[in-house]
Each structure stands twice: as structure tokens, then as C-alpha cells.
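User: Can you predict the 3D structure for this chain?
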Amino acid sequence: MSDVRYPFTAIVGMADLRLGLLLNAVSPAVGGVLVRGEKGTAKSTMVRALAGLLPSIATVPGCRFACDPASADPQCPDGPHTVSARDERPAYLVELPVGVSEDRIVGSLDLERALAEGVKAYEPGLLAKAHRGVLYIDEVNLLQDHVVDLLLDAAAMGRSYVEREGVSVRHAARFLLVGTMNPEEGELRPQLLDRFGLTVEIAATRDPAERAEVVRRRLAYDADPAVFAARFAEEERELATRIVTARELLPQVVLTDVALRQITAVCAAFEVDGLRADIVMARAAVALAAWDGRTEVLEEDVRKAAQLALPHRRRRNPFDAPGLDEEQLDRTLDEHAEPDPEDDGPGPDGDGPGPDGGPDGNGPGGGAPEPGSDAPDGSAASDDPAVPEQSGGPARAAAPVASAGEPYRTKLFKVPGTGKGAQGRRSPAETDGGHTIRSRRPQGHLSRLHLSATLQAAAPHQVARGRDSRALVLRRDDFREQVRQGRESNLVLFLVDASGSMAARQRMTAVKGAVMSLLMDAYQRRDKIGMITFRGSGAELALPPTSSVEVGAARLEQLPTGGRTPLAAGLLRAHEVLRVERMRDPHRRPLLVVVTDGRATGGRDALERAGQAAGLLASQGLASVVLDCEAGPVRLGLARTLAGQLGGSAVTLDELRAEGVAALVHAHRNVSTTNRKAA
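Assistant: Here is the predicted structure, written as C-alpha cells:
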């Protein structure tokens, strides 16, 4: 790989991403930028290219935390700094790997030396290296939530904190934060999305000429990176100079009362939560003015700031796509713009819009269509082939697909035992977070000291070790680390019966609503999900295991129904999918959710074959839940029989609701209290 970066100015298109990155380069207080887009759209290339445009920084010689000689951090672990010398170096681009640990991010203390020698031996982490530079998080949506929280807290506060057994270290950590993600691989929680200042949606251009130019430039760069970079050297220098100029102009930019009123009005109109959006929009609008060389924020700055700062804050649940209504934005800006003193409305001569010519009239400017017309423009009929022709009688419409009912909070289903999977919110597991349950000898580097267990291990040997002072004599074998129990995320595999016995529309609406609720629960608990459907002659993997719950919801909405019930085929397909996933991720424990009425067709032995397939899954200790969808006055109990064969539990649609369970418990308590009083 070449050491010559791809030039920022050589990237074709993607104007919004370019602007979002440059605004953060001018004013890191904007809060970073989240880049959302499909794979292969040069997200990483542009972020890496930006680092080459940033001005070099002055540092204190020998300081591992990049302290500025002009204003050194008084809390710097390498301080206090009193030297007058200075070093110059480029601003660093620090890339965060997906599997990074908390200690690697914030740094770690050598607890053995801290206890045995009484010294603070601190090894800085990636946040210290990123100070006054760029922190780049590729695939930020694949990081564990507590890691993302830690990064965003540091970005918001400008400091990093390390606390280990009463030893505290803190240092400055101000950086330009850039995250990239592919929405197909799962969304960030709305709370985490809100912490990013700006967001940009990108997609590969569909213009053949632009695509050809992208390929042409990439091939030229691969052939000779140095020659290619030299072609854009002058443009790169001009852009770098413009960044420095905008930074110097930034303190002089005035945010007028009118612009501030427009900002707050837009945030209120779009009903964004909290006030972070208002602050980010104000900072982004000021940076836009400075970037354009102006000292006053204009309406166009507010509009562009809203387009970058608000779309990702519009999500209300995981199935909402980020977006912004441009017409509503323009309408709100117009309503709160500064009135024009020369605009006094229509004059006495009737120059303004009249009742027949303005937006409220029936003339060319707008209003209701002429009587008898079938379209707003007065045309007689639509050419849309989807519209049935009137002369030939009503057209036969396609069979409607049942929509999902409103999602609700469900019962919590857990995998029995204690796992070791990625942190989440479903099943018990040994994790980096959670509460301490026991101690053990360190496995590798000691990071979570169990102080009392360490002292207990060392105490019996103090006389033999010749202890002659108040200090303990510690050996490496004495140290114990904490074992913490928290919760892990799981693979929730849905096996959905889409056969004819489930096809009643009202019933399927309730079933889809139940599955949608379980999908929402899986999203909130950070699970991966997969979906298998079975109908007709076989089973289909409708959604391979993924972190994108949104895709699962979309597949569920489009789920067709009808035909036979090949239950055995569905169970065997689930067995195969889980076998493959176990090899890919052996630590992620699965939970099988079977949505069916328990019926099986396709021969006299259909139920017997289904029972054998269920036994195969049960023999592997698989955790399972059967959502019993049987309805009607006569019930065969086949779903509960299937649950027994799987070694799992069965719940009805009514029992699935968490509030229903809470109501039953509450009613039981009330009856018990009444009986006690009566006695």
C-alpha cells in the first residue's frame, strides 16, 4: 500500500460529505460527522484524505498527549510542562479497529506496579494519540454500545478519564470525530445518533460519465500515486489555506437574532428531542459563514446546517429512516425570516395576488381544480396502468398483504446459563461491564483488579516473605482479577409459518404485529436477527443473520402467505442456519422463535417428521420459544406439543405482551390482599 494519500480534491462528487468534513475541520465543536452509505462509496478514502489538509500542530517535546506549548494541559499526566521548546508535527489520523477494547481506547494503568511500587504507570490509549487530530471510526455501528458511549462522551467533554481502583488519570482529548457505517449492517441507537453533530447520506452516482471519471482517477492513482497526487497538489494547498483562513475568521462571525430564531424554530417544528440539535445547528451555521468568508450568518447557512444536522435526529423508533421534509424546512424558515421593510403587501392598485390569482384562489396560481376534472391539472383521466379502467368494469386487484399491527413491549426471553458473547441486554454472560460475581487469577494483562481477593491471597505469606514494614510484600501470583456478570446479545432466529392456515388477514395482522414487537425487542437488546419462512413446498431463508433489524421489518411487511405447511422443512432449515452461524461466531448463543399454529401438512407423517426435526434441535441444547398462533373455538394444542419437543416454552399472542403479564400479576396481588383482609 502506498504512503501517498489519495488527494481530497481528486474525489469526484459527494458535495455534502465534502462540506460536512470541512466544516468540522474549521470548527471541531460542531461535533463530528457520521457518514451513512452503501459499501464501496469512498467513505474511508475521503476521511483519510482530509487528514492531509489539516494544519500541522505545535507540541511540547516528549509529551505523549500532544500538549500545546502555548496552553499546556495542567492535568497532563506527563506534566507539568515548563519548557519553552516546541516541536512541529502533522495532525494524526487515528483509526479505531472494530474489535477495540476499552483499555486500548482510554489507556491502562499498570496495577501491579501501582500496588507493589506505589507509582502511576500509565500507558496512553488511542484518545491521547487522537488529541488535536482526527479520530476515525469505520463501521461505528458494529462497535459495542459502551465503547461508542465512551468515545462520544470524550468527544463532547474534550477529556478522557481513566479510573482504576482509586487511581485516577485524566487528560485532554479534543479531536475531529468521523464515523462511517453501512445501514444494511444495522443502525445506531437514536441516542447515539444524536451525539454526532452532522450526518451525511451518500450513494454511488448513477451517472455513467461520473462513474467513468471515478474509475479513471483511481486507476491513475494505483499506477503512480506520487504523480497522481502532484496533479492536485496546488488545489490541495489552496484548500488547506482556506481551512486556516476560516479558522481565523470563525471568532468574528456574528449569529444574528433572526438566524438564531430560525434555528430554534426549525428544531421546534421538526420536534427533535432536547436542545443539542439547536446548538449543533448554530455552530454549523457559524462555520458555514466562516467557510464562505463572511462574518454574518445568513438564511442559506441555517438551511444547509439543518440539512446536515437534523435528518438523523428525526428517528422515533428503529424502523424509521432518517430524513427531512424540505418543504416544511423552507416554510419554517420563511415564517421566521426578517420581514422586508419595503414589502407592504398589495397596494391600492391591486398589484398583489387577488382572490382569483393567488395561492388561495382558483386561478393559475393554485386552488381547487375545475369541476369534473380527474386531476389537479384538469386532465380527464390517468394513464397509470395501475388505475382500473371505468368502461371495462372494476379491475381485479391483487390479493392484499396483511399489514403488521402496532408493536408493543414484549416479555423478555433469555437463553439459559451464562454465556461469553458480545455485550448486549438479553441473556446473562461474563462481560467487561456488569457487577462482580467472583475473582480469578489474571488471564493475560491485569486490568480489573479484585483488591480484597488479592489481599487475601497475599496475607498468609507475609511472614515467610520477611515483611518488616507496613507495606505488603506482593508477588505476581497474589493478584486476582474481577469476573463480572452482565448481559450479552444473542442471535434471535425467527421461524415464521406463512402457510394457508395462517393466512386469515385479521389473524396475520396480529401475528405480524407480534413478530414486529419481538424485532423491536431484539433491536433494543442489541441482538442479531435472522428470519426463515416456510410455506408451500419448502422453507426459505428470508433474512440471513444480520444486525439490521430494519431489513427484518421490511421483509416481514412483504411476507406472502398461502399454501401447505412444511413445518419439518422449516425446522431443518433452522438447524442448518444455526450450524453455520455457530462456526462463524461460536460465542454468540442463539434463541429460536417459532411462530406457528403447530399444524403440519405434506403427507400422513408430516407431524411425525416435524417432531423428529424438533428433537434434532433439542438435542443440541437450543433455547427456543414457540409463539402459539392457534385460534378458533376448537384448539388442538399442536404448538404447545411442538414446544415440548423442542424443549422450550410456548406463549400465546395475548401472553406475549409484557403489560398483559404485569396486569395479571397486579390482579393476583390485589386478590391476595383482599383475601388477607377478609381473613
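Residues 658-678 form the longest helix (21 residues). Residues 347-400, 661-669 have pLDDT under 50 and may be disordered.
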